Amino acid sequence: MDSTQKQHESKNEVQDDGAPPRTPRGFRSLCCDQCGKTFTQTGNLNIHKLIHSGVKAHRCDQCGKTFTQLSNLKTHQLFHSGVRAHRCEQCGKTFTLMGHLRAHQIIHSGVKAHRCDQCGKAFTQMSTLKTHQLIHSGVKPHRCDECGKTFAVRSSLKKHHVVHSGVKAHRCDECGKTFTEKRSLIIHQRNHTDSEPYRCDLCEKTFKQQYTLKTHRRLHTGQDVYCCVQCCKVFTKYSEFKAHEGTHTGEKPHRCDQCEKTYSSICGLIVHQRNHTGERPYQCDQCEKTFKTSNALKRHRQIHTDRECSSAGAK
Protein backbone atom coordinates (compact mmCIF):
# COMPACT_ATOMS: atom_id res chain seq x y z
CA MET A 1 0.00 0.00 0.00
CA ASP A 2 1.50 3.32 -1.02
CA SER A 3 1.79 6.37 1.24
CA THR A 4 -1.02 8.28 -0.54
CA GLN A 5 -3.52 5.47 0.06
CA LYS A 6 -2.46 5.21 3.72
CA GLN A 7 -3.05 8.94 4.20
CA HIS A 8 -6.47 8.64 2.60
CA GLU A 9 -7.47 5.75 4.86
CA SER A 10 -6.09 7.59 7.86
CA LYS A 11 -8.37 10.56 7.12
CA ASN A 12 -11.37 8.23 6.80
CA GLU A 13 -10.58 6.70 10.20
CA VAL A 14 -10.58 10.15 11.82
CA GLN A 15 -13.92 11.04 10.22
CA ASP A 16 -15.52 7.75 11.34
CA ASP A 17 -14.41 7.89 14.98
CA GLY A 18 -17.66 9.49 16.16
CA ALA A 19 -16.17 12.96 16.73
CA PRO A 20 -17.98 16.12 15.53
CA PRO A 21 -17.61 16.71 11.77
CA ARG A 22 -14.82 18.93 10.54
CA THR A 23 -15.29 22.04 8.47
CA PRO A 24 -13.55 22.32 5.05
CA ARG A 25 -10.58 24.02 6.75
CA GLY A 26 -10.08 21.17 9.19
CA PHE A 27 -11.77 22.70 12.27
CA ARG A 28 -14.37 20.78 14.23
CA SER A 29 -17.95 22.08 13.89
CA LEU A 30 -19.39 22.38 17.41
CA CYS A 31 -23.17 22.63 17.60
CA CYS A 32 -25.31 24.34 20.27
CA ASP A 33 -27.80 21.73 21.50
CA GLN A 34 -30.47 24.41 22.12
CA CYS A 35 -30.58 26.44 18.90
CA GLY A 36 -28.37 24.53 16.45
CA LYS A 37 -25.88 27.35 15.89
CA THR A 38 -22.39 26.02 15.09
CA PHE A 39 -18.93 27.13 16.23
CA THR A 40 -15.35 26.11 15.44
CA GLN A 41 -14.02 26.69 18.98
CA THR A 42 -15.27 25.32 22.30
CA GLY A 43 -14.71 28.67 24.03
CA ASN A 44 -17.01 30.49 21.62
CA LEU A 45 -19.68 27.81 22.05
CA ASN A 46 -19.53 28.13 25.85
CA ILE A 47 -19.85 31.94 25.63
CA HIS A 48 -22.82 31.53 23.29
CA LYS A 49 -24.58 29.17 25.72
CA LEU A 50 -24.72 31.98 28.28
CA ILE A 51 -27.44 33.54 26.12
CA HIS A 52 -29.69 30.54 26.77
CA SER A 53 -28.85 30.46 30.50
CA GLY A 54 -30.22 33.96 31.08
CA VAL A 55 -27.20 34.83 33.23
CA LYS A 56 -26.06 38.44 32.76
CA ALA A 57 -23.03 38.85 34.99
CA HIS A 58 -21.58 41.98 33.38
CA ARG A 59 -23.21 45.21 34.60
CA CYS A 60 -22.74 48.75 33.28
CA ASP A 61 -21.67 51.00 36.16
CA GLN A 62 -23.35 54.02 34.55
CA CYS A 63 -26.88 52.83 33.80
CA GLY A 64 -27.11 49.40 35.44
CA LYS A 65 -27.86 47.49 32.23
CA THR A 66 -26.53 43.91 32.30
CA PHE A 67 -25.04 41.69 29.60
CA THR A 68 -24.16 38.03 29.13
CA GLN A 69 -20.78 38.83 27.59
CA LEU A 70 -18.06 41.28 28.60
CA SER A 71 -17.52 42.24 24.95
CA ASN A 72 -21.15 43.36 24.69
CA LEU A 73 -20.75 45.46 27.84
CA LYS A 74 -17.67 47.18 26.40
CA THR A 75 -19.56 47.91 23.18
CA HIS A 76 -22.46 49.33 25.19
CA GLN A 77 -20.16 51.58 27.24
CA LEU A 78 -19.04 53.31 24.04
CA PHE A 79 -22.48 54.93 23.86
CA HIS A 80 -21.95 56.54 27.27
CA SER A 81 -18.59 57.91 26.15
CA GLY A 82 -20.25 60.06 23.51
CA VAL A 83 -17.50 59.22 21.02
CA ARG A 84 -18.85 58.83 17.48
CA ALA A 85 -15.71 58.19 15.44
CA HIS A 86 -17.34 56.74 12.33
CA ARG A 87 -18.60 59.39 9.89
CA CYS A 88 -20.71 58.93 6.77
CA GLU A 89 -18.96 60.60 3.83
CA GLN A 90 -22.25 61.31 2.08
CA CYS A 91 -24.27 63.08 4.76
CA GLY A 92 -21.83 63.66 7.62
CA LYS A 93 -23.83 61.67 10.18
CA THR A 94 -21.62 60.05 12.82
CA PHE A 95 -21.89 56.72 14.61
CA THR A 96 -20.39 55.01 17.63
CA LEU A 97 -19.93 51.67 15.87
CA MET A 98 -18.67 50.83 12.39
CA GLY A 99 -21.50 48.33 12.02
CA HIS A 100 -24.05 51.10 12.51
CA LEU A 101 -22.32 53.22 9.88
CA ARG A 102 -22.40 50.37 7.36
CA ALA A 103 -26.09 49.76 8.03
CA HIS A 104 -26.74 53.49 7.57
CA GLN A 105 -24.86 53.65 4.26
CA ILE A 106 -27.41 51.29 2.71
CA ILE A 107 -29.89 54.18 2.91
CA HIS A 108 -27.84 56.17 0.41
CA SER A 109 -27.69 53.23 -2.00
CA GLY A 110 -31.45 53.43 -2.53
CA VAL A 111 -31.75 49.64 -2.36
CA LYS A 112 -34.80 48.50 -0.38
CA ALA A 113 -34.60 44.73 -0.44
CA HIS A 114 -36.83 44.04 2.59
CA ARG A 115 -40.54 44.25 1.76
CA CYS A 116 -43.53 44.02 4.10
CA ASP A 117 -45.81 41.17 3.00
CA GLN A 118 -48.88 42.96 4.37
CA CYS A 119 -48.70 46.42 2.80
CA GLY A 120 -45.83 46.17 0.31
CA LYS A 121 -43.72 48.90 1.90
CA ALA A 122 -40.01 48.30 1.37
CA PHE A 123 -37.06 49.02 3.67
CA THR A 124 -33.29 49.15 3.40
CA GLN A 125 -32.75 47.15 6.60
CA MET A 126 -34.37 44.00 7.98
CA SER A 127 -34.49 45.50 11.49
CA THR A 128 -36.53 48.45 10.19
CA LEU A 129 -38.94 46.05 8.48
CA LYS A 130 -39.43 44.09 11.72
CA THR A 131 -40.15 47.32 13.60
CA HIS A 132 -42.63 48.35 10.89
CA GLN A 133 -44.45 44.98 11.07
CA LEU A 134 -45.33 45.68 14.70
CA ILE A 135 -47.72 48.34 13.36
CA HIS A 136 -49.77 45.65 11.63
CA SER A 137 -49.83 43.45 14.73
CA GLY A 138 -51.43 46.22 16.78
CA VAL A 139 -49.26 45.21 19.74
CA LYS A 140 -47.94 48.18 21.73
CA PRO A 141 -46.35 46.78 24.89
CA HIS A 142 -44.48 49.94 25.93
CA ARG A 143 -46.72 52.28 27.96
CA CYS A 144 -45.98 55.79 29.19
CA ASP A 145 -46.46 55.95 32.97
CA GLU A 146 -47.50 59.60 32.80
CA CYS A 147 -50.19 59.68 30.11
CA GLY A 148 -50.88 56.05 29.25
CA LYS A 149 -49.90 56.33 25.61
CA THR A 150 -48.54 53.07 24.23
CA PHE A 151 -45.80 52.36 21.69
CA ALA A 152 -44.73 49.40 19.60
CA VAL A 153 -41.02 49.90 20.29
CA ARG A 154 -39.15 51.08 23.39
CA SER A 155 -37.18 53.74 21.50
CA SER A 156 -40.42 55.54 20.59
CA LEU A 157 -41.45 55.57 24.25
CA LYS A 158 -38.09 57.10 25.24
CA LYS A 159 -38.54 59.88 22.68
CA HIS A 160 -42.07 60.48 23.93
CA HIS A 161 -40.87 60.90 27.54
CA VAL A 162 -39.13 64.12 26.54
CA VAL A 163 -42.54 65.74 25.98
CA HIS A 164 -43.39 65.35 29.67
CA SER A 165 -40.01 66.61 30.87
CA GLY A 166 -40.70 70.10 29.55
CA VAL A 167 -37.04 70.42 28.55
CA LYS A 168 -36.53 72.21 25.22
CA ALA A 169 -32.84 71.78 24.57
CA HIS A 170 -32.89 72.33 20.81
CA ARG A 171 -32.79 76.01 19.80
CA CYS A 172 -33.19 77.52 16.33
CA ASP A 173 -30.21 79.75 15.46
CA GLU A 174 -32.40 81.90 13.21
CA CYS A 175 -35.27 82.86 15.48
CA GLY A 176 -34.40 81.46 18.92
CA LYS A 177 -37.43 79.16 19.13
CA THR A 178 -36.78 76.03 21.22
CA PHE A 179 -38.00 72.45 20.81
CA THR A 180 -38.09 69.29 22.88
CA GLU A 181 -36.92 67.09 19.99
CA LYS A 182 -34.14 67.61 17.47
CA ARG A 183 -36.45 66.30 14.74
CA SER A 184 -38.91 69.12 15.45
CA LEU A 185 -36.10 71.66 15.21
CA ILE A 186 -34.96 70.29 11.84
CA ILE A 187 -38.51 70.47 10.49
CA HIS A 188 -38.91 74.01 11.85
CA GLN A 189 -35.64 75.19 10.28
CA ARG A 190 -37.01 74.39 6.83
CA ASN A 191 -39.37 77.34 7.33
CA HIS A 192 -36.29 79.57 7.14
CA THR A 193 -35.12 77.95 3.89
CA ASP A 194 -36.60 76.67 0.64
CA SER A 195 -35.75 73.07 1.54
CA GLU A 196 -38.51 70.62 0.61
CA PRO A 197 -36.82 67.20 0.71
CA TYR A 198 -39.94 65.03 0.41
CA ARG A 199 -41.04 64.49 -3.19
CA CYS A 200 -44.19 62.78 -4.45
CA ASP A 201 -43.20 60.06 -6.91
CA LEU A 202 -46.53 60.43 -8.72
CA CYS A 203 -46.73 64.16 -9.43
CA GLU A 204 -43.28 65.51 -8.42
CA LYS A 205 -44.68 67.95 -5.83
CA THR A 206 -42.31 68.56 -2.93
CA PHE A 207 -42.98 69.09 0.76
CA LYS A 208 -41.13 70.13 3.90
CA GLN A 209 -42.48 67.25 6.01
CA GLN A 210 -42.81 63.54 5.42
CA TYR A 211 -46.21 63.61 7.14
CA THR A 212 -47.43 66.20 4.63
CA LEU A 213 -46.25 64.03 1.76
CA LYS A 214 -48.10 61.00 3.14
CA THR A 215 -51.27 63.05 3.49
CA HIS A 216 -50.85 64.35 -0.08
CA ARG A 217 -50.32 60.86 -1.54
CA ARG A 218 -53.78 59.82 -0.40
CA LEU A 219 -55.12 62.26 -2.98
CA HIS A 220 -53.67 59.92 -5.61
CA THR A 221 -54.62 56.57 -4.05
CA GLY A 222 -57.95 57.49 -2.48
CA GLN A 223 -57.59 54.42 -0.29
CA ASP A 224 -57.66 53.73 3.42
CA VAL A 225 -56.32 50.45 4.67
CA TYR A 226 -58.84 49.09 7.20
CA CYS A 227 -62.65 49.19 6.90
CA CYS A 228 -65.17 48.35 9.65
CA VAL A 229 -67.72 45.83 8.33
CA GLN A 230 -70.34 47.15 10.75
CA CYS A 231 -70.38 50.83 9.82
CA CYS A 232 -67.93 51.06 6.88
CA LYS A 233 -65.73 53.55 8.73
CA VAL A 234 -62.18 53.43 7.43
CA PHE A 235 -58.85 53.68 9.24
CA THR A 236 -55.24 54.02 8.20
CA LYS A 237 -53.90 52.47 11.42
CA TYR A 238 -54.68 48.90 12.44
CA SER A 239 -54.61 49.70 16.18
CA GLU A 240 -57.27 52.41 15.76
CA PHE A 241 -59.36 50.03 13.65
CA LYS A 242 -59.29 47.32 16.36
CA ALA A 243 -60.18 49.83 19.08
CA HIS A 244 -63.11 51.04 16.99
CA GLU A 245 -64.48 47.49 16.51
CA GLY A 246 -65.10 47.27 20.25
CA THR A 247 -67.58 50.15 20.12
CA HIS A 248 -70.12 47.98 18.28
CA THR A 249 -70.47 45.38 21.07
CA GLY A 250 -72.04 47.85 23.53
CA GLU A 251 -69.78 46.68 26.34
CA LYS A 252 -68.04 49.34 28.42
CA PRO A 253 -65.74 47.52 30.82
CA HIS A 254 -63.33 50.41 31.41
CA ARG A 255 -64.44 52.69 34.27
CA CYS A 256 -63.00 56.03 35.36
CA ASP A 257 -62.09 55.90 39.05
CA GLN A 258 -62.81 59.61 39.48
CA CYS A 259 -66.26 60.06 37.94
CA GLU A 260 -67.44 56.47 37.24
CA LYS A 261 -67.90 57.10 33.52
CA THR A 262 -67.37 53.92 31.46
CA TYR A 263 -65.81 53.28 28.05
CA SER A 264 -65.68 50.44 25.54
CA SER A 265 -61.91 50.72 25.08
CA ILE A 266 -58.96 51.46 27.35
CA CYS A 267 -57.93 54.16 24.88
CA GLY A 268 -61.23 55.96 25.40
CA LEU A 269 -60.75 55.85 29.15
CA ILE A 270 -57.18 57.18 28.92
CA VAL A 271 -58.30 60.09 26.75
CA HIS A 272 -61.16 60.85 29.15
CA GLN A 273 -58.86 60.86 32.19
CA ARG A 274 -56.89 63.70 30.62
CA ASN A 275 -59.92 65.89 31.36
CA HIS A 276 -59.18 65.30 35.04
CA THR A 277 -55.39 65.60 34.84
CA GLY A 278 -55.18 68.41 32.28
CA GLU A 279 -52.54 66.51 30.31
CA ARG A 280 -52.08 67.30 26.63
CA PRO A 281 -49.41 64.84 25.41
CA TYR A 282 -49.67 65.46 21.67
CA GLN A 283 -47.57 68.36 20.43
CA CYS A 284 -47.45 69.92 16.97
CA ASP A 285 -43.88 69.91 15.65
CA GLN A 286 -44.59 73.07 13.67
CA CYS A 287 -45.97 75.43 16.30
CA GLU A 288 -45.74 73.35 19.50
CA LYS A 289 -49.43 73.68 20.31
CA THR A 290 -50.58 70.72 22.46
CA PHE A 291 -53.66 68.50 22.34
CA LYS A 292 -55.36 65.80 24.39
CA THR A 293 -55.84 63.37 21.50
CA SER A 294 -53.92 62.34 18.41
CA ASN A 295 -56.99 63.02 16.24
CA ALA A 296 -57.13 66.60 17.49
CA LEU A 297 -53.48 66.99 16.59
CA LYS A 298 -54.11 65.53 13.12
CA ARG A 299 -56.96 67.99 12.51
CA HIS A 300 -54.72 70.83 13.63
CA ARG A 301 -51.85 69.65 11.42
CA GLN A 302 -54.13 69.92 8.42
CA ILE A 303 -53.87 73.69 8.82
CA HIS A 304 -50.13 73.47 8.15
CA THR A 305 -50.67 70.88 5.40
CA ASP A 306 -53.16 73.05 3.52
CA ARG A 307 -50.73 75.94 3.62
CA GLU A 308 -47.90 73.81 2.21
CA CYS A 309 -50.10 72.28 -0.50
CA SER A 310 -51.25 75.76 -1.51
CA SER A 311 -47.65 76.93 -1.62
CA ALA A 312 -46.60 73.92 -3.72
CA GLY A 313 -49.51 74.38 -6.10
CA ALA A 314 -48.55 77.99 -6.69
CA LYS A 315 -45.06 77.03 -7.90
UniProtKB/TrEMBL annotation:
Keywords: Metal-binding, Nucleus, Repeat, Transcription, Transcription regulation, Zinc, Zinc-finger. SMART domains: ZnF_C2H2. PROSITE patterns: ZINC_FINGER_C2H2_1, ZINC_FINGER_C2H2_2. GO terms for cellular component: nucleus. It holds the Pfam family zf-C2H2. Residues 30-57, 58-85, 86-113, 114-141, 142-169, 170-197, 198-225, 226-253, 254-281, 282-309 form the C2H2-type domain. It is found in: Nucleus. This is Zinc finger protein 98-like. The gene is LOC103373215.
